[in-house]
Amino acid sequence: MNKTLVVCSGGLDSVTLAHHIAHQSTQQQAQKQAQELMGLLTFNYGQRHRKEIDCAIACAQRLNVPHHLIDISTLGQSLQSALTSHDEAIPEGHYAADNMASTVVPNRNAIMLTIAFGFADSIGATQVAIAVHGGDHFIYPDCRPEFIEAFATMQQYALGKTPAITLFAPYLTINKGDIAAIAGELSVPIHETWSCYNGGDIHCGRCGTCVERLEAVHHAGITDQTTYADTTFWHQATQKNQPLADQ
Amino acid sequence: MNKTLVVCSGGLDSVTLAHHIAHQSTQQQAQKQAQELMGLLTFNYGQRHRKEIDCAIACAQRLNVPHHLIDISTLGQSLQSALTSHDEAIPEGHYAADNMASTVVPNRNAIMLTIAFGFADSIGATQVAIAVHGGDHFIYPDCRPEFIEAFATMQQYALGKTPAITLFAPYLTINKGDIAAIAGELSVPIHETWSCYNGGDIHCGRCGTCVERLEAVHHAGITDQTTYADTTFWHQATQKNQPLADQ
């Protein structure tokens, strides 16, 4: 039986993953092959706002599982990053644009995953699930398949447990548009997920993650009740780059 | 040129490592093969006292390099451990005894190392050095050679840099007695390092790390100006287990 802890930021991808595993769990229980969604784990790493975290908490409530919050915000002060620095301007535009590289926190996924594995071990989980996807590969080295595989191997040795706690990354070879399609199939309330890097009351529609989200929703052809401050910018940004659907 | 960041707890092993690299650096500079000790990195993970951290700061001052402190104490609240819990009694005796397993923080080395690599990347270091040693292997899975190797591989992928930031663990195949001997050769002031798990004003001489330290000093046959509350218990504890020198 897999007891799965989902690393959930409160964004579209990880909220969909949590719903996905909860759905599979229900399906499998009906078939008497028990699987358990043990809970969601969110990191407070010094985000500009709490909306993303609140969306993760809301997701756990919807799925009736515990939500765990681990504060690593002091690390953000030590690791240089436009993402966690409130002084730097957020780059606008498509993720593919060079200026988005400044949003990378050095070693972010490796840091969060090692903590997630330590936490999983503490609560008796047997699997950690993350929502890294194919669209992240070209800008974030710590979202690529070779990293995921090497990380899982490292963790086998680090905890020295048999069986090892496994790393489940089912979206590794699909893109955000495909994830949005899964969200549609599972009726995930995507307007209750948060993607925007800016700290406004509504999604700005212009930052890298907003553009990527709007592309994904368009690609999946699903209904999106999210309110965006700018609903047309994403299309211009996409024109300047490879649209996600064609990657 | 290697620019090395040493992960330094303030204990005997990592302080010796810092002195060791600083010494090699000086030697190599004389030979015009530049190597640089960039600084020391210490984690505040909710230790029972600050003495260990103060010893790391003192080491950096002696070696005239920057000292960096990263606070991960909130993680300690999330990850079960006798080491970071102020409510549990510290086990006495030799590291080999079963009761010492409760001092293992789940995934501790992997967590600290991923943060160290992120920090190294931020400051432009090309190497992270740690003082894990052969004596740690049998109780801590995340001190074993196969972990160190897998971790270094994972980091190559995680940061995606060429050349990769390397992991230097020169004490991996020697024991603490051998490290104490190196400390003796380099005239490291070992009474200015801290090993005791208890929060007293002086080393207790009875906890696992005190016993291990006293064994190591005895094995190396070096002068130790450290004051211990109990100077005989370590020998009884060693009799019950394999002495370090015979491992």
Automatic annotation (TrEMBL), chains A, B:
**Species this chain originates from:** Ostreibacterium oceani
Q: In which pathway does it act?
A: Purine metabolism; 7-cyano-7-deazaguanine biosynthesis
The protein in question is named 7-cyano-7-deazaguanine synthase
Record-linked InterPro entries = QueC (IPR018317), Rossmann-like_a/b/a_fold (IPR014729)
Q: Which HAMAP family match?
A: QueC (MF_01633)
Q: For this protein, what is the EC number?
A: 6.3.4.20
Source species, domain of life: Bacteria
The UniProt catalytic activity note for this protein reads: 7-carboxy-7-carbaguanine + NH4(+) + 2 ATP = 7-cyano-7-carbaguanine + 2 AMP + 2 diphosphate + 2 H(+)
The UniProt keyword set, sorted, is: ATP-binding, Ligase, Metal-binding, Nucleotide-binding, Queuosine biosynthesis, Zinc
Query: What class does this enzyme belong to in the EC scheme?
Result: ligase
Q: Name one Pfam family in it.
A: QueC
